[in-house]
Design brief:
The chain is of the alpha/beta class. Among the domains are: about 140 residues, FAD/NAD(P)-binding domain; about 140 residues, FAD/NAD(P)-binding domain. It is built from twelve helices and 27 strands. Helix 1 links the parallel strand 1 and strand 2. The protein starts with a strand and ends in a 7-residue tail after the last helix. The site of flavin-adenine dinucleotide has 33 residues, from helix 1, strand 2, helix 2 and helix 9.
Amino acid sequence: MPSRARVVVVGAGFAGLTLVRALRGKPVEMTLVDRRNYHTFTPLLYQVASALLDPSEVAHPIRGIVRPIRNLEVRMAEATGVDLAGRRLLTDVEPIDYEFLVLCTGSTTNYFGIRGLAETAFGLKDLEQALALRNQVLRRFEEAAWTADPERRRMLLTFAVVGGGPTGVEFSGALSELIRGVLAKDFPSVYIRDTRILLVEAAGHLLGPFTPLLRESARRTLTRRGVEVLLEKQVRAAGEDYVELVDGERLAVGTVIWTAGVRAGDLAAALPGDRGRGGTLKVESTLQLPGHPEVFAIGDLAAVVQGGQQLPQLIPPAMQEARHVARSIHRALAGEPAEPFRYADPGMMATIGRNAGVAEIGPLRFSGFPGWILWLGFHLIQIVTFRTKLVVLVNWAWNYLFYDRPVRLLVRAAAHESQARAAPDAQLD
Ligand SMILES: Cc1cc2nc3c(=O)[nH]c(=O)nc-3n(C[C@H](O)[C@H](O)[C@H](O)COP(=O)(O)OP(=O)(O)OC[C@H]3O[C@@H](n4cnc5c(N)ncnc54)[C@H](O)[C@@H]3O)c2cc1C
């Protein structure tokens, strides 16, 4: 019997998991490599950061997800480069040979070299960052409770969310609900009027990819909920207790949350070839690396251009590209050439908090309560396991009915008591 083709997939995100599912039972042997042992459902990360959901409700063990896929093995390792000539993936453990390689290592936070940002700002790109942000918000309230100086207290309780895209909008709305609905009751000695949430956006509107009507609806809703939306304001520096704007204004803030940009993950830098937006890897229309038809790059890592525009770094392109690559591998095994990829845009949506969301699906536009219901329904369906769907639904309902955020814990992660005293706040609880 001829040996089966060896397919190595790097990254168990939305693209990687879709791909290995599509190749389940096909005449290939797959190895799925990820530096983490879990997959993250990113659309709900902001709910971890705002103390609504627990990490286990947005992250799932990779081995559990792929258990039914018999022609797959999982290896936890950091991919560090590719020996294209030798057809070997290089990792921090040992190299892995491949006949087909699919790179889908996603993106990471882009600080654009802005002074002080990488050192002091909080990101919202992965589970560790979401937990660190949750801890920071809770810690700032604890500190404020001890602070007699009103100016310092106001600084501690001012949160600047930079970036008015879906993540910035969703987190600002959720933070406002956490503070007004829950922390205001937890901290009776802290005046709610001392807290400020600033949403800082360089463009003249929020939610760039949406239609003007929906952008304006999101801005009005956030403003009504106490978020100060600062448009046409660009950040040029940040520190522990301030953020500085390009026009010279300096705002005293206790926490800067940066949601204003992503770039391709570090693996992209280790590969040759042209680059797209944010250092993404330029690929052929077939999603193959130029000059290397056996290597594909997809998802947030890849610059896939259609109609002169690079596709957005979103889940639908990542998943559609993955299905296309599965078909291409199948075709290659039958001796047929790969076909160009065509993206079918399913629309987009964002939530602003309780009873408020925006959605664009084809020619249809939704805002307010209908937009919110659509967002909830769509994301509930997408959640990976049935157990998690149920738990998330219960948490959402609990929060909706009782204005309660169950996971307001500041936990320190340490193996020994001596470490516990020295350790920073928990990465996981
Ligand atoms: C807070 C947030 C909210 C979002 N909300 C939405 C939304 O509502 N709708 C939407 O469409 N999109 C949303 N996105 C964007 C969406 O998450 C990405 O477009 C999508 O995850 C891209 O899929 P991917 O498979 O390319 O990368 P990812 O899903 O990021 O997966 C990459 C995987 O590669 C692994 N990895 C990275 N580097 C290495 C390495 N060197 N070696 C080994 N493994 C590695 C990572 O651990 C990860 O498992 C959101 C993103 C964020 C950060």
